[in-house]
Structures are given as structure tokens and as C-alpha cells.
Amino acid sequence: MKIDEISSPELRRSQDDLHNQLCSQIESSIKDIEKHVPGTALPDSFSTDLRRIISQLNCLSPFPNSVKLHIWKLSYRLWNACVDISNAAGVKTKHDEEHAKLRQVSADLLFLASDVSGIPSPAFKSASFFYKAGLIWHDLRKFELANYCFEKASDLLSKVDITNISEYEEKKLLLDLNIARSRTAWEVSDRNLAIALLSRSRNVLFAVAENYKALANQYLMFGKAMLSKNEVSGVNEALRLMNDALELCERGLTVVKRTEQTLALKELRSKTLRFLAASHLQRDEFESVLKCVKILRDSEKDQHPSLSVLAMKAWLGLGRYGEAEKELRGMVSDKGIPEGVWVSAVESYFQVVGAAGAAAVKGVFLGLLGRCHVSADAAIRVVNKVIGDPAGAGEEARLRAKVVSDLVSDDRILTLLSGEDASKERTAMHALLWNCAAEHFRSKDLQTSADIFEKSILYVPSDIESRNLRAKGFRVLCLCYMGLSQLDRAQEYINEAEKLEPNIACAFLKFKIYLQKNECDGAITQVQAMPSCLDFTTEFLSLAAHEAIACRCLPVAVASLSLLLNFYSTGKQMPTTEVVVFRTLVTILSQDPQNDSGILKQMKRAHTRLCEMGTESFFGKGEIGRRERNWFSVNAWNSGVKTGQENQYAICAEFFRLASEFYGASIDEEKEGNHVMVCKSLIMTVSAIISDEKQRTNALLENEVKEAITLLDRAGKMLMSSSTEYDKLEAIIEPSFLFVYTWCAFDLHLRLDDTGSQQLLLIKRFANSKYCNPKHLLQIGIDASEGPHSNHEVAIFALSTCLSTLLALPSPDYVSVALILRKLVSLRSIHGVDTNDDATMETYKQAYRIMVGLKEGEYPVEEAKWLAMTAWNRAAVPVRMGHMDEAKRWMSMGLELAKKVPGMQTYRSCMEDFVEGFEKKLSGA
């Protein structure tokens, strides 16, 4: 408001009335503030209204002294109201911005009357208000407002002649104001101004001990702040500031004489020296650190705890580990050193010295245990520092672990962490040791790992709640000792774990121990016990099989997989498909050539599941299913071939029958599966059945014969459905299988009374095919001529046809020819002399014709002798019967044959003599 407005006719007020009115408004606002409820927020209307009134008052200056006195009182009243509100709110409540604004309003109001008469040192009082308001703004981190207040106070005091100041508070204010401005400048990173203000403060110390202490302390605070930044330039600056602080302490001690003030400066001086030592330590100026420590030790009766730490670190930096260890051990006897200090010292020492200092650290720590203030937390910190990084492995890590093992197993440590109030620390120690042992385990250092795992169990309570944790520790110890091949000890631990927490993990580890001991029976028993565990899953049986295979303990693998197969029908989730388990099981069994019965058992089991599940559900679909089907088919076939070669015809027949079933399984759009192999398998099945009968010399029962015929008929239907002409079957099946089929059909049908003619037709059909060879006919002829179900018609036909075929060859096999002739003679002789003599004679004549023209010995001599002798002997019956012509005919045949046999000259002479005598006798008669 302007003066011309005040004096205008419209307002009609005098200047004094306006002063009084504005002061009344200020007083009214102050009253409202005085009525404000402490603890509630101050409305911003107070400071806004007061700021507006002060602006109006400022336009009306200069004021008469009476108005100034009134303003002065109002300012103090407002200030006191703010103080009351702040005190009533409690010491924990910080000043808010509205409160700071009212403080600054009070200072601005007092500034309007700062030249009032009748009040001593008004400028100092006004500056004090601004200083205190600035401190509040500084606490609220409103540094611009704080600086404004400090500068207003500095302006007020700049006009004061400091040589005339005698009051302590006024001397103190000059220094505090400079320090406060310096702190604010430091906060806004104006360090040059901050240091300059501190330097300016040296001029207002007034030989007051408190001033020296305050200024030196501020230098120290700035130095500590610079030191904490860990910058090279910052450390240098910190060192300079701390030297300034030390200088001020020294100057203060020369000026101040009162004992209590001297003690305060000495304490600050010692503190500064300690921080100086810390600054030198950061700069690796170890000699300077030791000098500071020496000064402090020489000047102080009660040594500060940090001196030993500083000295130890300096000795470590100089590489004098013996001196560092002395400092460390000296801390043990000093009960005044706090726990945190010596724990930090132990950590620092071990960090530099490493594993070489582990034993010293152990000795120091155990010595410290005798001190009453050692806590469980300190023990954990020390153990953690000694452990370091166990992942590094190597000799150092093992040495550290050895020290840790000795340390944590000490009775004093165990006692320290045994109380109920140390449960948290005990858990932390267990976790620390467990993690350390786990790292060594991963590094394959199993001995160290086992040692630390054992010590970790010492920190697990023996109550029910911790039994699972103890069991876990025993299980991992079992693993360690298994890796160390100390199987008996591993078994002890897993037995203890099973007592605490019986589960599948314990069962499986016991199984592995049996395997490593090569105790197959024990391993199998353990496998069979696994399903009884509550947390059992079928994956463990699969894993057990893999472990057994790796240990070459095949019976255990077989037992595991056999047991695993029992769970496929239960609907449980399985680790792999059932067909894969069967395939694996058969593969394992095949590694032992004596396991044919076991392979057959599993093959039958697989076939049963195939019938239950269906082809595609068991083998799988598409190409995968075909591969699985073919694998089982081929293995069944190969096992049949193998057992057949070993004359195990009963098992052989079973394998070939399974092969026919597997080959016949259809995948996807296949209609008949591999019908050719089905046909072959059926033929081989029947052949094995007949061979087994001959081997056992026990005739097949009628139902067994019919079953075999049924199998053979299936094969026959496949052959006939594939080709209507017998001679076209070679494209489908090998001739050897046609022979086996024919031979088996003939053999089986021989056993039926009414099928003789059918067998002859069957053999004639086979003999007329181009795939028939003499050996096949010879075999059929011999079989048809022998046994209880012989068929002489088939035998004679087969042998005669075989003989004709052999003689048609360029180089006949005369051994076989001789055998056939003997068989034909025998067959024709057995079935009646009267009806077969001519045929028998024809057989002998045929033999004679065959021998004519052969080289000596080309026809088997013994067989030729047999023919000659049997032909001669056949004359005996006709002689006795009086049929002389018939007798003469047989004698002539025998004599003619004998003439073709080398070595029968004597017999031939005798024969000739007998014939000559026989003829004379006949003629005489």
C-alpha cells in the first residue's frame, strides 16, 4: 500500500492508525496460532496472512520507535508460540514446512524492528532468529531457504564490531552462523565456499574452548564425509581437512586452561588422529598409520578399541604378519574392546593372510570365547569369514575347511549355540556349514565334504521337529562315503536316516550300497521293498535298473524291470512305455546265453500284454510301432533258431510260436502283418514239436497232434492263399521250408488212421514239384519206413523216386543209392514174400545193373556184400519149400552180385561150388 493511498480522502486514516491496524491483524493471527491444537497440521493461511501484512508494513517504514517496540514484542510472541507448538508435539515429531515458514515470518518481522532503541544488541537477536530458522530449513533439506536465513543473519552481524563483543552467546553465534552456512554450502556441493567459511571462522574463535571444538569437529565431519567416498582425490582432501581439525585442537589446547575444556579437546584430538590414521590406511601409507597409533597410545591411558585394528591392518599392509598376529592376539586380553571391533579385526586379518592364518584365527577366536560378551552371532561371522569361498576348492579351501571343522566342533562353540535363545543362530550356523560342505561335494572333495556335513549335524537339535533335517544330513553323508568307497560307514548312516525318516530315498541308497558291495540278493530284496515306501514312484525302479546295468549286476536289473512291469496295469504314471521295458529286459537277459527260459518267460509276458492292450496300444503307432513289432518278432525267431541248434526243441517250439504271433500283429493299415514270416514260424514250430517228441521218446498225445496239425494247417492256408500252384511258391517261401512243411504234414497225418492215402498224394505232389531234391525224398522215405506209424507205400514211393532222381544225376551219390536200395529191399521183404518177391528181385536186379560198369569201390563195398549175401540167403526158404527154380533164381542173383564185389572171391568160389552141386543134385533127382 502506498502512502498516497493512505492519505487519500477515501481512506481517511492517519499513518499511525494504519500501523496500529496492521499490528492488530498480526496480533490476531498470533492469537489464532497460540490456540492451535498441538500435533495437528498448521494451515498455510497463517504464514500467508502474516507474510501479506509484513509486506504492507514494510511499505510504511520507517517506523516510530513505539511501533518498532510493538513489532518486536509481536515477533517474540510468534516465535514463542512456535516453540510451544513444537515442544507440545514431542521430540520425535519433526518440523514441517509450515512451522518453518512461521519461524521465518517471526525472523522477518523482527528484522523490521532490528534498529529499535532501548533493547541491547538488537542485531544479534534478529540474527539469532534468522540463524535458528535457517537450521530448521536445513533439517528439512530446503537448502536455498536455509542459506537465505543464514545470509540475512550474516548481513546483520557484518556491521557489528567484533572487538566490542563480550557476551559468550554472541561470540558463539558468530562461529555457529559461519559453520551453519558452511554446512549448507557443503550440502549443495559448493565445497569451496564451505571450506572458505570454515577458514573465515578462525577469526571468531575468541579463545573459547567450545569454539575451537566446534570448528575442529566440523573440519573432521567434512573430512569423514570425503573419506567415505573412497576416491583418491577425496582421500587427499579428507586428509587435509583432518589435519586442519588436528591443528585447531592443538591450538585450542595451548589457549584453553580449564581441565574439563582441555579433556574435551583432547578427546576430539584423539578422534581426529584415529580418522587420520584411517585416511592414511586408505592411501596405503602404513608407516603414517603406525605413527598415529603410537601417538595415541603414548598420550592416552584408556586405549580406544580401534587402535589395535588400525595397527593390525597397517602391519598387514607392510607384510609383517607376525606383528599383525600379535595385535590380534592382544585384543583377546583387552576386555574393553567391543565384540564388533574384534570380529571385524578377525575378518580383516583372515582376508589378507588367508588360509595361512586360519589356525591363528581359530586360536584367537577360541581365546575370545572366554570373554563374557562373545555372542553367537559373532561366532557365525568368524566361521563365515574362515570358510570364505568354498567354491574355489584347492588346497586353501581344504585348509580353511579343516580349521572350520575344528572350530565348530569345539565344546565352547557348541555350548555358545546350544541355548533356546540361540536357535536362530544355530540354524544359521547349520546353513553355513551345509552350504560349505555342499560346495566341496560339488568339487568332488568328498572327504572334506563329509567332515563338514558331520559337523553341521551337531547344530541340528535332537527333537522331533528336526528329525527330517537330521535324516537329510545322514543321507548326504551316506552319499559322501559311498563316493569314498567306505560302504560300511555309508550303510551305518543310511540306516540311521531310515530310522528317522523312512522314505524311498533311503531305500534307494541302501539299494546302491548293496550294488556296490556286489550283493545281488540284498539289492534284489531292497528293490522289492521299494514299493512299500509311502513316497515311492515307479521312476525309482527304472533308475534302479540303470544303476544295476552300470554295475554289470544283470539279475538285479532283471528284477527291477520285472517289478516295474507289474505297475503298468495299475494305471500309474510310468517313466517309459511298457514295450520299451520289455525290450530292455529281453536285451539284458540275452547277454547270458543260458537265459533262454528267462527270455521265453518275458516274451510270453509281453505277448499276454499285447493281447490285452491291442497291437497299437502296446507297440505304438506308425513306424515306431512297426520297429517295435519287428524287434520282438526277430528276437523270438533268433531265439528259436538258437535253441533249435542247441537241441532245446521244447523251448524252440515256444519261441517260434511267439514269433508267429508277433509277426502276425498288424500295425496301422496292414491286413495280415508279415504273413510270410508267420508261415515260416508256424512251420518251424511244428518241426520243433516233432523233434522234441523224438528227443524225449515220448509220443505226442492225440490232442497235441491235433494242435500241431492246426498250426500246420494255418501255414498251409497262407501258402495256398498266396499261390494256387505248388511250383510258384518259391517266390513266397524258400524250398527248404516247403520240405519241412511237407515232412511235418506227412509225419503228423501218419498218426491218424484214415489219412494214409492223403499222405501218398501229399508226397507225390511234393515229389513232382521242381523244388523237390533227392535228400528231401530220402528223408521222407526213411521216416515213412520207420516208427510205429510207418507207411510203406509212401516210403517205397519216396525212396524209388529219390533213387530215380539220384541215378539221373551226372555224378550220383552211390552211398545214398546203396542206402535206398537196402531200404527198398527191406520194405519189400517185410510185407509178404508171395506178393513182393518179383518186386524184391527187381530191386536186386536194379542194384546189379547199377553196379555194372562202376569202378572198383565206387559203389559202397559193404552194401554190395550185403546185397550179394541177402540175395543168396533168400534161396534158403525156397529150397526148404521145394521151390527149386525160385531157389536157383536167387542163388544166381547172389552169385552175380558177388562177382561185382571186390574181396568176395572165396565166397564166390563157395557159391559156385554150391550151385554146381545143387544143379547135379537136381539133375540126378
Automatic annotation (TrEMBL):
**Keywords carried by this UniProt record:** Meiosis
Give the domain of life. Answer: Eukaryota
Checking InterPro entries in the record gives: Spo22/ZIP4, Spo22/ZIP4/TEX11, TPR-like_helical_dom_sf, TPR_rpt
| Gene Ontology BP annotations | meiotic cell cycle; regulation of synaptonemal complex assembly
- Protein name as catalogued: Protein ZIP4 homolog
The major lineage groups are: Eukaryota, Viridiplantae, Streptophyta, Embryophyta, Tracheophyta
